Each structure stands twice: as structure tokens, then as C-alpha cells.
Amino acid sequence: MSYTLGTFLTASIVISAAAFLFAAWLFRWVKAMPSNNARIAEVGALIRGGANTFLRKEYTALSRFAGGVALAILLFLPSPIWQGEAMDNVYMMVAYLAGTVFSAVAGVIGIRVATLANIKTAEAARKGIKPSFMAGFRGGAVMGMAVVGSALLGVTLLTLLTDDTSVLLGYSFGASSLALFAKAGGGIFTKTADISADLVGKVELGIPEDDPRNPAVIADNVGDNVGDVAGMGADLFDSNVASMAAALVLASVLDKSAGGAANSAMVFCYAAAGLLASIIGVAMARMGNHGPTRALNNSTYITTGIYGVLTALATLIFGFQWRIWGASAVGLLVGVIIGIASDYFTNDARSPVRNAAKASESGPAFTILSGVSYGFISALPSLIGIAVAALAAYKLCEPIGDGYAMFGIAMSAVGMLSIVGMIISNDAYGPIVDNARGLSEMGNLGEDVLEITDQLDSAGNTVKAITKGFAIAAAGLTVIALLGAFISEVNEAALAHGLAPITGFDMMNPTVFFGMLIGVAAPAVFSAMLILGVNRNAQRMVDEIHRQFREIAGLREGAPGAVPEYDRCIEIATNGALRELIPAGLLAILLTLAVGFIGGVEAVGGYLCGNIVTGILLALFMSNAGGLWDNAKKYIEAGAHGGKGSDAHKAAVVGDTVGDPFKDTAGPSINTQITVVSLISSLAATLFLTISLF
Amino acid sequence: MSYTLGTFLTASIVISAAAFLFAAWLFRWVKAMPSNNARIAEVGALIRGGANTFLRKEYTALSRFAGGVALAILLFLPSPIWQGEAMDNVYMMVAYLAGTVFSAVAGVIGIRVATLANIKTAEAARKGIKPSFMAGFRGGAVMGMAVVGSALLGVTLLTLLTDDTSVLLGYSFGASSLALFAKAGGGIFTKTADISADLVGKVELGIPEDDPRNPAVIADNVGDNVGDVAGMGADLFDSNVASMAAALVLASVLDKSAGGAANSAMVFCYAAAGLLASIIGVAMARMGNHGPTRALNNSTYITTGIYGVLTALATLIFGFQWRIWGASAVGLLVGVIIGIASDYFTNDARSPVRNAAKASESGPAFTILSGVSYGFISALPSLIGIAVAALAAYKLCEPIGDGYAMFGIAMSAVGMLSIVGMIISNDAYGPIVDNARGLSEMGNLGEDVLEITDQLDSAGNTVKAITKGFAIAAAGLTVIALLGAFISEVNEAALAHGLAPITGFDMMNPTVFFGMLIGVAAPAVFSAMLILGVNRNAQRMVDEIHRQFREIAGLREGAPGAVPEYDRCIEIATNGALRELIPAGLLAILLTLAVGFIGGVEAVGGYLCGNIVTGILLALFMSNAGGLWDNAKKYIEAGAHGGKGSDAHKAAVVGDTVGDPFKDTAGPSINTQITVVSLISSLAATLFLTISLF
User: Fold this and answer.
1) Is residue A203 predicted with pLDDT exceeding 80?
2) Which residues of B touch A195 (CB under 8 A)?
3) pTM tops 0.80
4) B504 and A506 in contact by Cβ < 8 A?
5) Binary contact (B383, A517; C-beta < 8 A)
6) B524 and A621: CB-CB below 8 Å?
7) CA distance to partner chain A, nearest, from residue B119 (Å)
8) What is the ipTM of this complex?
9) Does position A535 have pLDDT exceeding 70, yes or no?
10) Cβ-based neighbours of B163, under 8 Å, separated by 6 or more
């Protein structure tokens, strides 16, 4: 069937609009559910208020940062404004700002619905597990639809407005900037609150989790929302946009040399098909009789299947290259497989978690040593998966013609990220039901309800391991495609400046190797700074909690009228998160610029490569080790090795505390770091090419 | 002045012989020192016996392994025996076996003198710190001289016997095989004993370190010798040989195209100058009034200076290239700077250790989080140092002509490793004085003596951090040079098979990238397997110690005649070390072969690169984090944050236990892993080139 690029741009807009309408319908559906427990409403309002406080402060800080970056873009990118076309710089700046705004709006929507759905989920649990599950799942799906709808809509609109794909990299960079704040900042917030609430509440005073006397308890619940809902959403928004941008940059080069717009059209077609598949998948999701975990996983598999069929149909109808369809399918398949591998290392029915739990009997040092070891080992299957996906996509598409091999990798990343709407839905489900569990405890809804929310919560934790592995793999494949986009940008700039194009980055070139050695250190130092940030911030909050218990009369005893100052804890978490995030974020950016201005584009190529490969390694290590410790603790709490209160349990708690910033702050933030660094490099390609020491 | 290659080969033999004679003189000097305490003699004999048991078993296992490898070499390397020159295979096999034997002999000598010098050092402490220092230092220097002498002698003899530099890679591979057993096996042994002795003795029973009632106490002292003396010696023997082999492989290519043997001559000249400098440095070493740490560091600086002067003189006299002298000097300088950077992160006068000690007040999780973070950050300066050294050496030597750039990097590694005789002397000093401390406690030599040995021991620990950073940096630079040797081997094979030569490894080539992603995982998985091995083995030994305390009547109370079965613990440590080491070693080798036979030489190039860069990162991370935890614990024990027995101290002990296998098993073994993998790849280059899936 004959088509134009316009056909697919229109389809993308229509499907994005459908996603928004569906999100609105889901939101109203959740909102219409009954809620009438005053205590829950009160606590729910505190959580909502805290989340809004964080978002307001974060977005204020971000808008200052983004303003500075926007000004720098206006002056210097894609080339200094006094040298190139001034309008190019204006477009780039607008695209950058659009990237931050679209992602921020999706974050606000996500938080808004999550802090509503938690209440509804808690109250629905009184009617049974199925309505409660639906409230949690559909609440999460609002975020999923909003994120993917706005990602696709933004890319489509920018393509309509400018026909310069570099501008898409600017949009993607905007999304990354926001993700850096949302994921790393949210990650510091949530773990600051979580760790200090546990440290004083559970360890020192021996009061239960979610006890309302604990001044940090609201901050802890807020943290789930800002870290896991807004943070994870921004992270996947970022990867999703980056995969489309990388694919479109490469497609436009191919289209230019072949004439027409077949490749760009295909990118939009596949991305739109992915969103459509996610809409159908979400709409069809129901909980059967096999429990919530099965329900969540089934919807992922169904979406995957629908995507495969839709894209195959489109390929047939529009006469796209089957090889590229194959690359895209391989990416999706490998994404799912990597998720399953992550599950193996964090599932308490498997030997890694069991061995770590057993090792805890000898003391916390052995818990740590086991977790670190299995965390490192867990990286192997995923790295092999990414390696195979990239190699298979490349080899599949190489025969089509020059440049298609790298485009194949980009389409493999697009394929992997196609079902991201579904992934986000599953992921946002986690903190909603986690909150719901806390609310049912604080609202005294009784044992039956608590059991249901516990079951929903446990499913959220299991699925989280899979979606996290998936997110890291997707980011990995995306940044490999961004490497291709980087070369393409470099060569466009080289052409414009009459310089020789580069064909690759030879590791035997010492400038490349120089960059690579420094790139290898970058994600390690970045994640270390975030962890130290959590460490310092938690110390501050522990001091504040101690102060409240000391100064507020009757608080420790739970005397009526003795209310903790929840706001102070939220304030500490918020301010600390922003303060600790800035140096790490700046380091990531400045190190890239330093390498570029010292060693030029070749050093940057090596730097990106080193950054990407160790970034993936460390992200997998930290996420999986953290998940393993979490589940080893839960496994012991369920009765193994002496159960709660035993020495093994105490050791496992140490492991869990170490794992908290690993899995929820540093690990997932590395995703963002590698994307930010890759995008800056592409955007500053002209500068590195023309101004460098070597 | 005119010269032939023979001039320098002769000089190398003469200086090697001088090193052996000097070692013999030092040995007699140490042996002639008085010793007459019966209790010390008795315990000393137990330690010596245990160390010999370990060596015997290790060398038996190794000889089986080496026999298998030798057979495989005979059949397949450098090319299948039925295809190429059969004598090439025989030479290669002989060289391989020579590498294992020379290194093993140096190890035996080192252990022999270390288990003698520990007694002499303890007894000399009764006369004061200076004679005691000299006993420890000169005991260590025997090992230093033996190692470097046999490394240089082996390379020289093989060069005289064959004029095929590939054979040197075989010799180097032999040295690496031994190092894998000695370093990883010794590392598992020493930490098994150390951790379980502490866990039962100090933590459970509250008896002091080195208490003779503890059945693991002798194994612990044996461990210091087999891990730190024999293991570290084999590791540096390995790096030293590898740096010479890589430089000679590259030099021979240059010499072939230029005629003559100027470059090969230069390698021997510089290596011999380094050994001579070390001999002079050791001979001049005395303890002044500034304490033992200053004495050890001063001898390093003096040796460095002598090396610089000697090589400058040689360059002037023989008309070598000054640019190459510059590359070599840069390497040495950077090695020293990296050592100082490592010291910063592990010195208790600096903020990283202080912060980790302070964080311990909040519990062990915070000790771990701080140490992990600073460990990752500590990699940055060293990686920048290696990157700058490689880049500077390359840029310095590039103008000389084609191929000199990579030769410059190799000479930079030779320069860095030139003072290795001195480094090993300093390093072996550590376990000798550590043992001496234990012996003076067990021999009841009194508080004054204990204070002196404590002071000597503390200097050993400080210097150890520096020498470890140095060893990792040297291994890093060496394997970069081995990458050059790998390409050179590949191209020689390509020429022989009429295939196109390769010029480098382009990261945008998906086969290279495929290899790189898997290479990145290799050192992570290797080190994780060693750590799990220590974990498992320590559990076994803890069970055995419990059994002895339960079954041997009067042991716990220290009744006269109740002697623990020290041998059983030594046996468990020995057998476990070998059993746990094999899978990790096999994985390192098989993963390389798998990548090579799947993706061919390009995949192997990427694999090596990924393996090297993450290997360096993880080795620095683990060594420095481990050193930091060790010193944070000691800092608290010295009275900070509540001192011994406080909660902060308990938390710091957890950190120290985690750090033990990090810094003494996994971290330093990664050095060996990256060398082994690089050498196998070079040796199997022909196979990968001719037989591979892609």
C-alpha cells in the first residue's frame, strides 16, 4: 500500500490522542471508586501534599537549571550562534524546553493519580482482591499512557514543525535533564526517608513500619511516589524518546541518500503500533484466579504479542523491510528474556536469594559478600542478551545496504521500548499498592484487608525486578543506537566544516582509549556520589527524627494530640535530594565536556563507549544485588533461618539497607546518566570537532 | 657507542646473576641473626610447615593443570601441530613450562625466607626497632631479588635460545598460570583462615587475635605468607614478564622492518637497568629517625631516581631514542602518583577513612555504603593516570615512526615495572612483620617488643596500599601493551594465511562491541566467584573450629596439654582454595575461547578491551574499598567514635570482613585474570583467525 510520512505522523497523533483519552477515562474510573474512611483520607492528603511539595521544589530547581542549559543551547548548540543559522539554535532550545515540559507534565499526572489510586486501592481491598488490583493497576496505567502518549506526540509534533532530526536530540536531551532530576533526585528522596524511618522506627524503637508516630512515615510514603512513579516514569520517557530520536536521526540519513521517507515512516509506524498495543494490553488486563503477579506478567506477554502482530501486519501492508521487523522483534524478545534473568537473581524461590539468606546466619558481612557476588554474576546473562540483540540486529539489517546495520540496532531498541506503556503501568502499580498497604494499616482496615494489600504489594515487588532489568537493557540498547547517532552528527558537522568524516572508534587509537578509561570511571563515580548523598541526607533526617521524639511531648507513647511534624522530614528529604544531586549531575556533564575539549570527538567516542558498558554493568549489579537483599530479608521474615528478630534477620536488614540506595537510587539513575552523556555528546559534536586540545 | 643485542643479553644475565647472589647474601644475613626463644621457634616451625603443605598441594594441582595446558599447547599453539612447524609448538610448550617453573621457584624461595625472617624480626625487636626493621626488610628483599632476577633471566635465555618472540608470550602465559593459582588460590586460603579465625575467636569467644588456643591461628599466619608473599610475588613476576614480552614482541616487528635490533636491545637495557636500580635501592635501604614508613617509601623514591638516571645515561651512551626514554619515565612517574592516590583513600589521616569511621556510628550498612562509594571514586584518579600515561607515551613516540606509538606504551609499562624488585621487597616486608607481631605475642616477648612490632606492622599496612595501587596500574598499562602484541600476533598469522591484516578494533563494529559487552562482565563474574569461594570455604572452617572447641577437652579454657589440631584447619584452607579456584579460572579461560570461536579476532579484541577496562576499575574499587575498611576499623580501635567494643567498632568490623576478600582475594586476582586472558588471546590468535562462527 502506498503511503507518505504524513500518513504515519497523522496516525501517531491520533494514537497519542487516544492514549490521552484512555488515560483520562482510566483516571475517572479510578476516581469514581468509593472512599469514605476519614483516617485514610487524612493520611492520603498528607502524602499528596508531601509529593506536591517535592514536585514544586524540584521543578523550581529544574526550571533554573533548564533555563541555564536553554541559554547555553541558544548560544552554542548545534553551533555557536554567531557562526551558524541562528534559527537552528532557537529550534534546538525550544525542543529542549519541550522535552522537559512534556516529561514534567506526565510526571505531575502520574503523581496526581498515584496519590489518589493508593486510597482507592486500600478501600477497594475491603471488597476483595480483584477490585483492589484493578484500582492499583489502572492507576498505574494512567501514568503509562500519559508518558508514552506525550513522548510520541512530542516527537511527532517536532518532526512536523522542523525537518531537522538534530532537534529531536535536543528534545531528548530535555527529557534526559528532567529524568536526571526526577530519577536521581527522587531516588535520594525516597531512600533518605525509607532508611531513616526504618533506622529509628524499626531498629531503635521497635515500632512497626508505617506507624503514624514516626515523623518520617509520611515522607517514606511520599518517597514511593516521587521515586518510583515520577522517577521511573521520567526515566522510561527519556529512554523512549531517545530510542525514537536515535532511530530517526539514522533513518533520515538513509532516507536522504535513498530519497523518500520510508525509514522515518517505519519508525513512526512501529512506535505508534507499540503505543496501540499497550493501550489494548492495558484495556484487556484483568486479574484471573492465578493471583496478581500472573495478571501483571500476562498483560506484558499479551502486549508483546499484539505488538509483534501489529508490526508484522504493517510491514506486510506497507512493504517495509522484513529484516528490520526482525531486528525490532529480537529487541523486544531479548528485553523480556533479560527481565526473566533479573527475576532469577532476585526471586526467593531461587538459589541466589536462598544462599544469601543462609549466609546471613554467619553475620552481616556474609550477607553483603553474597549479594555483591550474585549482583556481579547477574550482569552476565543480561550483557550477553544485549550483546546478542545488538549483533543479531546488525547482522540482520546489514545486507539491506550501507548504514542499515546501525539503523537495525536502533529499531531493535525501538522494539524493546515499544511496550513501555505497559511496563510503566506495571511499574507504577508497585508504589500505589505499597502505599495502599500503609494506608490500610494506618486506617485500621483489619487483618483481611492487610492480607490482600500484602499480596498485591508482593506482586509489585516481583514485577519490579523484571521491569528494572528491562529498563536497563532498553537503556543499554538505546545508547548503543545513540552512539550511531553521535557518529552521524559528527559527520554532518565534519561535512559542514570541510573535515574528513570518521567511520568508527578504534580502540587502538590512544585518544579513543584515553576517553574510554575515563568513561569507565564516570558511572562509578556518579553512582558513588548519589549513594554518599543518601548517606549524608539520611544522617540529617535521623537527627531530625530524634529531635522530634525528644521535644514533642507524648509522641513516643502515642498520646492523643501528640502529632509529629511530618513536614519537617519531607523538607529535609526534598532539600537534601536537590543539594546532593547537583554535584553528581554536574560531574556527569562536565567530565564529558572536559574529555571532548581535551581529546575531541575520538576521545568522546571512547568515553561514551566506556561509560555505556560499565554503566550497564553497574546498573545491573546494583539493581539486582539490591533486589536480592530485599527479598532475602523478606524470605527470612517469612520464617526461614530463625525468622524475624533472629541474628540472620538482623544481618539481612543490613543487606537490605545497603541495597536500598543501590537499587532505588544509584542503579536506575545510571540509566539516565548514560543517556544524558550520550545526548550531550551528540549535541556538542560540532564543538568537540572544531575546538579540542588534541 | 656501538653495541649489539648480545651486549645487553649478556648484561641482563650478569645483572640477574648479581641479583641472585645478592639474594643469597641477604638470606645468609637474615639467617645469621640470633634466635633462641623455644616457643617462637616452635610456632615458627608450625607456620613454615603449614606454608610448605599449601605449596606442595598447590604445586601438585598446578602441575596437573600445567601438564594439561602444556599438552594443549603442544597440539594447538601457535597453530595446530599437523599444520605448522612442529618445533614451534615444542618451543612454545617448553617456554610455557619454564614460565611456571621459574615463578614457582621464586615463590618457594620467598616463602622459605619469609618463614625464617618472621622469627628473626620478632627476636630482633628485643634489641630495638632498627635491627628488627632490617630483618623484615631484607627478608622481603630476598623475594624481590629472586622474582625479578628469574623473570629477566628467563626472558633473556629464551631470547638467546629462540629468536621467536611469540615464545616469550608462552613463557609469560606460564607465569600467568602460576600467578592465577598463587594469587587467587593463596587469596582464598588467607582470607578463609583470617575470616574464620576472627569470627570464632574475636567475635564469638572474645579471645585476642593470635591466641594459640584458636585452631585457625596457624592457618591465619600461614595465609599471610602464601597470600601476600608467594601470591603477590607471582602476580608481579607475571606483570613483569608480560611487560617485557609485550615490549619485545612489538620491538621485534620494528626491528624487522628497520633492520638491526636497536629496539629489542633497548628493552633489555631498560629492564636490566631497573633490576640494577632495585639492587642498589635495597642495598642502600636503612631506617633513619623518621620511622619505618618513611624508610620504605624513601627506598622506593631512591630506586625510582636511580632508574631514571641509569636509563638516561644508557640512552645517551648508546644513542637510544629520547622519546622512548620519556615514555618510560612517564610510566614510572604515573605509577608512583597512582600509589599516592591509593594511599589517600586508605590513609586514616584523610577524610575517606574518617568519614567511613564516622558513618559506622549509624550501623554497618553505612560503613558498607561509604566504603563502596569511596572505592568507586578512588578509581577515577588512577584511571585518569593510566589514561594520561598511555596517551603521553603514545604521543611522545608516534613521531619516531610507524608502530613506535604502541611500543612507547609498552616501554611505559616496562618503566613502571622497572622498580618492581623494590616494590616486592616492600610488599613482602608486610606479612613478615605481621607474622613477627603474632610470634612476639605467642612467645610472650613483652609489651616493649609488641609495641615495636606493632609499629613495623602498621608501616607494612600503609605501604601495602601504595604497592597494591602500583601493581594494578602496572598490570593495566601492561595489558594495554599486550593488546598491541595481540594485534601484532593476529597480523603475523593473517600474513601466513593470506588474510587481510587488521589495523584496530572499531567499537562501531558490532562483532567488536559484542565481545566488549561480554568482556565487561568477565572480571566481575571472576571476582564474584572467588568471593563466593571464600564465603563457602570460611563456613567450612568455622564448622571445624566449632568442632575442635567442642571435642578437645580443656581447649577453650587453655588447659595445659590441650592443643588444637592446627593441621586440620590448614588442610581445609588448602583444599578449599584449590577447589574454589578451579571454576573461576576455567571460566576466565573458557569465556575467552568461546568469544574467540564465535566472533573471531575482532570479537576477542573487543572482549580484551572490555575485560581490561572494567578489570582495572573493579580491581581498584575492591583493593581501595578493602584498605579503607581495614583502616577505618583500626582508626576506631585507636579510640575514635567510642573505640574498641563500641557499636561503631562492631560496624567497622563488618566492613573489614567484607573488605578482606575484596582487597586480598578478588581485587588483586583480577590483575592476573586480565593478564591471563590477554595472553591466551595472543597465543590463540591463529586459531581465532582461522576458525570462528562469524
Assistant:
1) no
2) 365
3) yes
4) yes
5) yes
6) yes
7) 33
8) 0.91
9) yes
10) none
